[in-house]
Design the sequence.
């Protein structure tokens, strides 16, 4: 197979942050405003995610719409996993953050032991892709728990949450430019984009009484989904033009 993960560019990070925001606001909209509840929402989203993963695993190269659809659905499911632990099982955010951090460390350890690399530039086998998506799911669950821990339990609030997580990502980018390990920098940034996107989503969607802008979950989700679709469409057509201009590829 060709590499199944897109090039890490500015557009990659923009779509990633937008998808995490949709995961936060979309899950809240379905569970609360539609009235499906966390359990039903999680069940429905897991079924959609299974279908998207089936399409993604069948593909022999990176297909933008399938890949990013899978990312959005993983975002929703990862959010629901944390919400179920917190709201239904009443597990503290401190405990869930620690558990997901341990699960992610274990995933990386097993992945590295099996493949001797954690680089996303070499997702060229089904086993590596399964490791990749397993790690992605845990990063979303960890990011949700860590973001809620910071903004709610520790009282940072949505605005400070956006600033804090955005600053951490900026520091990682600077460290990468100065020569830090690119694989480590990528995964640290990937984890932090989840609480950044969640804080941004809450900031835009929550009412002014809770420190938000008050756009609501439905309008925030629609706006961000529209941008995601536009960017994925642009990436798809740009890739097609590049392929036609360079037949060797």
Sequence:
């Amino acid at each position: 197979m060709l590499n199944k993960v897109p090039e890490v560019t500015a557009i990659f990070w923009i779509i990633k942050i937008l998808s995490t925001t949709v995961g936060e606001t979309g899950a809240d909209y379905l569970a609360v405003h539609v009235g499906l509840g966390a359990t039903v929402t999680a069940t429905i989203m897991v079924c959609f995610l299974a279908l998207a993963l089936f399409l993604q695993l069948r593909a022999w190269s990176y297909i933008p719409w399938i890949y990013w659809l899978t990312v959005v659905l993983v975002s929703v499911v990862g959010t629901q996993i944390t919400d179920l632990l917190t709201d239904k099982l009443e597990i503290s955010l401190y405990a869930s953050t620690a558990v997901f951090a341990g699960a992610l460390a274990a995933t990386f350890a097993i992945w590295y032991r099996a493949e001797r690399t954690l680089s996303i530039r070499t997702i060229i086998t089904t086993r590596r892709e399964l490791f990749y998506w397993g790690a992605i799911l845990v990063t979303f669950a960890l990011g949700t728990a860590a973001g809620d821990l910071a903004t709610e339990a520790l009282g940072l609030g949505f605005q400070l949450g956006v600033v804090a997580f955005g600053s951490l990502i900026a520091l990682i980018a600077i460290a990468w430019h100065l020569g830090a390990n690119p694989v480590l920098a990528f995964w640290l940034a990937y984890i932090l984009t989840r609480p950044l996107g969640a804080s941004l989503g809450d900031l835009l969607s929550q009412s002014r009484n809770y420190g938000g802008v008050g756009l609501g979950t439905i309008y925030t989700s629609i706006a961000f989904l529209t941008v995601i679709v536009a960017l994925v469409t642009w990436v798809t057509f740009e890739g097609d033009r590049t392929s036609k201009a360079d037949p060797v590829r």
About this structure: The radius of gyration is 18 Å. Residues 10-241 form one domain. The CA atoms of residues 159 and 186 lie 24 Å apart.
